[in-house]
Amino acid sequence: MTRTELHRLVDALPTESLPAAAILLQRAQDPVAAKLDGAPYDDEELTDEDLRVVKKARSESCISWEDAETELNAASTIPD
Q1: Would you call 4 helix, strand, or coil by DSSP?
Q2: Distance of alpha carbon 80 from alpha carbon 42, whole angstroms
Q3: Which residues contact 33 (CB under 8 A, 6 or more apart)?
Q4: How far apart are CA 26 and CA 79, in angstroms?
Q5: How far is CA 28 from the centre of its chain?
Q6: What is the SS3 assignment for 65?
Q7: Closest residue by Cα to residue 75 from 8, 64, 67
Q8: Residue 45 three-state SS
């Protein structure tokens, strides 16, 4: 894709699409983000072991986000 081709694509965008295109173009200026965005989708099938681990993790008890936030805030408080 050349800059000229890219300019043509931008010029052909409907007005409603400009904010989304601006976000994508700004993101593309970051080489790391551009590499990640351009990486192929990982469509590898989950193995039986993967599914077992996911099922186990979902069945475990957990704390609410509010409790986790309270714990994190308490841990980050510097004592006098």
Answers
A1: helix
A2: 49
A3: 27
A4: 42
A5: 14
A6: helix
A7: 67
A8: coil
